Amino acid sequence: QLVESGGGLVQPGGSLRLSCVASGFTLSFYAIGWFRQAPGKEREGISCSPSVSNTITYADSIKGRFTMSRDSAKNTVYLQMNNLKPEDTAVYFCYALGPYGRQYWGKGTAVTVSH
Q1: In whole angstroms, what is the distance from residue 86 CA to residue 113 CA?
Q2: DSSP H or E run through 65
Q3: H/E segment holding residue 77
Q4: Which of 24, 41, 95, 101 has the most CB atoms less than 10 A away?
């Protein structure tokens, strides 16, 4: 399973770091993505790490502000979010896709950016 944490309430311009911990499988063998779903909107992909060695890609809306990283030793993926904006308010999910089509979704962690 995947478990996200690190969400919360933050003021515009602030930072948060989200964590996504995997259990029962090894993240190193999986492609990992971060998604978010804002109120009343569809879930959107915001970053993707196809493998440990491949380049991480980002959606234009977060490029330059968010950084995704992996820690294989901790079987964890992070999303460092800086210069947060009100439009970043959403529930953030991590997703893993691996061998034989195995896939996992976390239950999400809520981020609210507001004064």
Answers
A1: 5
A2: none
A3: strand 76-81
A4: 95
For residue 38, pLDDT over 90 is answered with: yes
**pLDDT digits 0-9 by tens, 67-114:** 999 999 999 999 999 999 999 999 999 999 998 999 999 999 999 999
**Three-class SS of residue 87?**
helix
Burial of residue 108 (number of CB atoms within 10 Å: 0-12, 13-18, 19+): buried
Please give the Cα distance from 106 to 34 (Å, whole number): 10
Residue 46: both structure tokens together: 């915001």
Rg (CA), the chain: 13
| Total number of residues shown for the chain | 115
Q: Which contiguous run of DSSP H or E holds residue 66?
A: strand 66-71
Residues 106, 6 contacting (CB under 8 angstroms): no
